[in-house]
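Service request form, structural biology core

Requester: graduate student, group of Dr. S.
Request type: structure prediction, single chain
Budget code: on file
Notes: please return the result as structure tokens.

Sequence provided:
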Amino acid sequence: MWPAHAAGHETLNPLNPATGTTLAPVFIEATRDELDAAGRAADEAGLALRGVSNEQVATFLDGIADCILDLDSVANHFASPFKKPDGRSHGR
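Core staff response, request fulfilled:
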């Protein structure tokens, strides 16, 4: 189970480049231990998927994609500063 909050102390305050206002939430830099734990978890997940069929992996990844797409409000929140008048988002 992943911790609810990062253990780091350095923060990143994302800014709306159009207005300069701070966006929520503030991001907390991960510690070396947290990065190591994430790497170990990724390695373990990769090993667990070795015995799974391609169809099962595809279903699993489709489920992740569905969860991401369900985060419309989060995506819209972070994309809003970058929206063009036609509704498309763009980079820098």
